[in-house]
Every structure is written in structure tokens, then in C-alpha cells.
Amino acid sequence: MDDGNGREQTREELQLQLQQYEHAIMRIRTRLNTMLPVSRLPFEVLADIFGYLALLCRATSRPYAWVHVTHVCQTWRQVAIQCPTLWADLVLPGRPDCIYAAMKRAKAIPLTVTASEGISSQEKILGSLKIVMRNIHRIRSLELTISWNTFASFSRDFALSEAPLLQKLQLSAPIGLSQIGRIPHVFNSCPDPPPLEHIDLYRYCYPWPRLRDYTKLKHLRLGYDIHSRNSHEETVTMAGVLDTLEALHLLETLDIQNDLPAIDTTIIRTVTLPSLRQLALSGPPLNCAALLDHLIVPATACIAVTDIIWPTYTQFLHFLPAVVAKVVGATTIGVPRAFKSLALRREGSSFEFRAWTAEQPIEIAPDYLDRTTPKMWLDIPCHTLSLIHACAQLSLAEAHTLWLSSAVAEIVDSASVIRILSGMASVNAVRFVEWDANEVTSVLSSDRTEILEAGNGTAGTYVLPCLHTIVLDEVKFNHCPGSGHLHTPRCVQILHAALCARKSTGCEVKRLIVRNCEGVTESQIDSLKEVIDEVDWDGQ
After folding, report:
1. Residue 390 exposure: Cα atoms within 13 Å on the Cβ side
2. Is 217 exposed, middle or buried (0-12, 13-18, 19+ CB in 10 A)?
3. What is the pLDDT of residues 211-225, one digit of tens each?
4. What three-state secondary structure class fits 43?
5. 485 contact partners, CB below 8 Å, separation of at least 6
6. What would be the CATH architecture of the domain defined by 338-540?
7. Alpha carbon distance 93, 38 (integer Å)
8. Helix, strand, coil shares of the chain as percentages rounded to 5?
9. Are 198 and 227 in contact (CB under 8 A)?
10. Which parts of the sequence belong to the F-box domain (predicted)?
11. pLDDT at 180
């Protein structure tokens, strides 16, 4: 027995020594970590780095992957845990213990809550939301992609008046008519509304009259898929919409998708939105035009009328004056600036017309151009007369740079293309995207006096007389004009001749950029250098 007690005592002593050694090793490792270059960073810088990492992770399927930084070392863990802003963005659904821990570590920082039903069960998303909504007084932003039924299941226990910090409310329902329900009761009469600056309701019914209480709104987006409204909704009238917009004088962006008010010819009033920067409309074209006519916006506001289904050419003729009034300043605050850059391509069953008042460099590829916000973004019926009429009305004479997709040459006959381009005499740079080389040559060699009416031009004046830079983007050189046979040299020879002719009449092209073009060789590019000062070829 004594020997047994002695062995047990010895074991305990050894375990104690082992713990002491382990603690000593940990202290040594901690000291070694403090000697690493990364440990010299101030804690504030580390916290900023963790913040950027968290931001990147939230855009992925693993929004909390950034938490692994807390397992690297003791210092990193302490920095992360003591930075409340890292924990204030809650992505749901999540484990209840994790949600509680995050809210505790966020301390007094206002919460941003993002929840998506996705493939999660309704029970799981509801459990997470109910935990968070008990702290609705702490929520600054609430972004929910859930069905109306799910929203109704948890939202009856709170009102917007209980959310004094709430600045952004975004509700989006999954696709499907069955998901669209009644107006969320959170928009019931609210005696003490929160300082909402951003409301975004998509596939959710919305109450125009009840939005008047939110006078601090800066961003309003309301919409449905096409034809997805149902009988639960209140009737949208032009008078009701204008009454609401008149109360929202701080609006900076207004986006209404496929749920425009009905046309009411008895209303002649207008509403001024003095702070508006962006206006986006989609839906029946005449309804879009009616609302445009009733709104007075700053001349600097960007306007987009897209996703239009055009029943007839006549409807387009009735629609266009409302857009032109914004372009020329008839229904704007101040005088709009002239368009300096234009882009034209086909999108679905429409031509997509975009225009910028700030000149865009012609070197910008179309996909990068898509990332810039145009002053005007307009869907035009995809036929020749509509395009001619639109370009004639939209004041394009001062444009300098032009992006043209091959759809223009495929749908619009060559004479009409020349007629359209003849109204853009100031254009000095064009990017031809996915054209055939022979079609490009046809444009460059066209004399606009052969197309325009007598007396409207000077004999021998080329279309785009100021043109000095051309970008050939994915242009095909492997078809000879007038035949379907491969004959690249012939295409280059004709282009060479057209450039020589322009040079001889003072309409010289001085710069040629060739990108991703098919069927052209280095020797053929070299031949073009005989008539152009600068040729930039990517060798593809």
C-alpha cells in the first residue's frame, strides 16, 4: 500500500513538473512570436487587416472563416476579441452560441444583420433571426433574403419603432409567385419611425403612402419580376407615388422595377427631387415616360430606363420625348452637360444605348466600361427606325469616343449606320467590337454626302471626319468582302486603301489599336504602319 501511495505521489509530482515545463515552453514561444516582424505591427493595424479579411470572407460561402485568426497566437486572439467592429456583422443562419458570443464581443457597436434562407431550413433561419431580433434596438442594417412567410413568422414580435438605430432595411424574397405576400406589417403606422436612409424591397409588397413617414430616406428601391404582382397588393396610383416622393426630398437614388404607377392624364403636377443622383426605371414604356414627365431632377442625375418590352414602334415614339426632355434640360434643375462618350450594343431584344458626360478613354475594354456609371442608359427597340430616331433626338453631336458592337452592323443596314454616324461629327475615337473587317472598312470609306440629303454636307467629307484613333477589338479579318472564302490579305488591302484615301483628304487616322483579332498576321499589320503613325498590336 505504501509503495502504491508513493507511486501516485511521484506521478502527481511528474505531472506538475510537466505542466510547469509546458507553461515555460508556451512563454518561450510567446516571446519568440513577439520577435517576428509581423508582431511589430501596432494592434490597430492588425485589427484593420483582420477587418479586411472578414470583409472578404463575408462575400463567400464561409463568412466566418476569418475567425481562424483567433487560433494563430495569443496576441492575435486578444486583438481580434477586443475589436468589437469585427463581431458586429452577423451572417445568418448560425449556431446560437456563436451568435450570442458575437453580439457580446460587439459590445455597444451597432449590428449589421444579413440573413439568407437559401438551402437552409426555415426552422434554422427562424431560430437565428429570433435570437438577433431580441436585440433589434442595436441593429443598424437588416438585410434579409427570405420568403414572406418566413418573415411573417418572426416579425410580428417587433416594430420598426423599436429600432432607433436602423438605417437600412432590405427585404428580398426568393423567386416565385408563391413567395410574394402581403405588405410587411412592420410598415404599419409608426408614430416614431427609425432614421431609415435605405429601403430596398424586392418581391415584397410595399406601401407607397406609408413610406412618407421616412423623410430621411436617401435610397429607395422597389420592384418585382415582370408580371409578379398579385391581388394582396394595394393599387399603385400616380397621385399616391407623387405624394410620397414629394415627402422624400432627400432621395439620392430611386429605383422602381416593373411596378410603375398607372398613367393618369388628369395629373399635371411635377415633383422636384433636388438631391437625386440616380434614377432607374423598368416596366411598361409609357408608364416610365409618364413618371419621368412628372419628376424634376438635377441635370447631373444619372438616368436608366432598361428591361423594356416594346410592343410597338409607336410606343417608342411616345416614350422618347420624356427622355429627351431630361437630356436637353426641359425637366431638370440646371442645364445638362453634353454627352462625350457613347456605347451601343445589343442586349436581348433591344439596343442598349449608354452615354457619359465625362469622356471615357477608348482604350477601356467593354467589360471594364460596364463598371462605370453612364449618365444615360436606355433600351431602344432593336430595329433601324428606332435607332435612327433615338440618335437624332439625343444630341450626340459633341461626343468624342464611341463603342460600337457588331450588332449594329448585323441589324442596321449600312446606309442607316452612316446616317447615324453622320450625326456624330466630333467623334475622334471608335472601338469596333466583334465586327467583320470589311464592315469596318465600309464605314471608314463612306462619304456622308452620299447618304445625307443634298446640301447637308461638303462634297468629299468622310463620315466621322475628326476620327484619329481606331480600336479593332476581336475584329475578324478572315473573310473577303463579297465572298465567304478565307482571304485575309484582301481584307487588309482594302482597309489599307481606305486609310490611304482618308489621309489624302485630311481625315487621317493616326492611331490604330488591334486587340484579339482573328486572321491577321504581323506582316499585314506592318503594312498598315505605312499609313498610320502609331500601331499597337497585341500579336494575337
Report:
1. 28
2. buried
3. 888 999 999 998 876
4. helix
5. 479
6. Alpha-Beta Horseshoe (3.80)
7. 34
8. 40, 20, 40
9. no
10. 39-91
11. 53
pLDDT given at position 510: 94
The pLDDT value given to residue 17: 86
HSE-CB at 42 with a 13 A cutoff on CA atoms is: 3
- What is the distance between the alpha carbons of residues 69 and 55, in angstroms, rounded to a whole number? 14
- Report the C-alpha gap between 420 and 443 in whole angstroms: 11
Q: Which candidate, 166, 247, 258, 181, places its Cα nearest to that of 208?
A: 247
| pLDDT > 70? residue 290 | yes
Contact 150, 92 (CB under 8 A): no
Are residues 279 and 302 in contact, defined by beta-carbon separation less than 8 angstroms?
Answer: yes
Which residue in this structure is represented by grid cell 437565428? 128
Cell of 105: 464581443
User: 470 forms bridges with which residues in the sheet?
Assistant: 430, 512
DSSP 40: G
State which amino acid sits at residue 229.
Answer: R
Query: Looking at the DSSP assignment, which residues form a beta bridge with residue 144?
Result: 115, 171
Mean pLDDT in residue range 468-487: 73
Are 499 and 456 contacting, i.e. CB atoms less than 8 angstroms apart? Answer: no
Tell me which residue has cell 404582382.
229
Give the helix/strand (H/E) hosting 105. helix 96-105
Most confident of 9-13, 36-40, 423-427, 428-432: 428-432
DSSP code at position 41: S
88's CB contacts (< 8 A; 6+ apart) are: 102, 106, 109, 110, 111, 112
**pLDDT band, very low/low/confident/very high, at 454 (cuts 50, 70, 90):** very low
H-assigned helices in 394-487:
406-411, 414-421, 437-444
Q: Which residues contact 314 (CB under 8 A, 6 or more apart)?
A: none
Q: Facing residues of 201 across strands?
A: 171, 222
Q: What is the pLDDT of residue 177?
A: 46
When mean pLDDT is compared across 193-202, 434-443, 457-466, the lowest value belongs to 457-466
> Are 257 and 307 in contact, with CB atoms under 8 Å apart?
yes
Q: Could you tell me the pLDDT band of residue 483, with boundaries at 50, 70 and 90?
A: very low
Grid cell listed for 143: 438585410
Q: C-alpha angle with apex 456: 455 to 458, nearest 5 degrees? A: 80
Do the beta carbons of residue 356 and residue 375 sit within 8 Å? yes
Residue 397, classed as helix, strand or coil, is coil
For the beta carbon of residue 474, count every other beta carbon within 10 angstroms. 16
Nearest residue to 515 via CA among 489, 536, 532, 496: 536
Stretch 283-308: mean pLDDT, rounded?
92
